[in-house]
Amino acid sequence: MLDENCIFCKIIRGEIPSVTVFEDDHVKAFLDISQATPGHTLLVPKDHIEDIFHLPAQTAATLFSYVPMLAQAIKASNPGIEGMNIINNNGEVAYQSVHHVHIHLIPRYSAQDDFSIHFGNHSDMYDTAALEKVAAGIKANLKEAPHA
């Protein structure tokens, strides 16, 4: 089901123009209007799902199954592509600006292509006991594995 106010749902319905890369009954892939780097593509499910926290396992399996095909096509489209970031942002604090689950496929051309991600090194803050405590909290909240 689509949300009448969601910009990605409007793109799926054809109410807002987009440059489509791929589309079938399950997903739509289109170029991001901002083009962080040339070829920056968004992959969205055709159902309106807010974020990863609301994404059913089967829908996730279907959605993510398209990533290799799209990544390979994007890379093959330009010999200058040296790598690719595949990103899924969830929640405003994690830079999700459109609340319809989507995957960014961002081709990387060099270390100077004006796109960056920073992973701070906080290893001095965590010994094995601290890591085990974090893991225990996660484990305590796991549900049944989807492929069990």
From TrEMBL:
InterPro entries: HINT (IPR039384), Histidine_triad_CS (IPR019808), Histidine_triad_HIT (IPR001310), HIT-like (IPR011146), HIT-like_sf (IPR036265). GO terms for molecular function: catalytic activity. Gene3D superfamilies: HIT-like. A motif (Histidine triad motif) lies at residues 100-104. It holds the Pfam family HIT. It comes from Schleiferilactobacillus shenzhenensis LY-73. The active site is at residue 102. CDD domains: HINT_subgroup (cd01277). PANTHER family: ADENOSINE 5'-MONOPHOSPHORAMIDASE HNT1, HIT FAMILY PROTEIN 1. Residues 7-117 form the HIT domain. This is Hit. GO terms for biological process: nucleotide metabolic process.
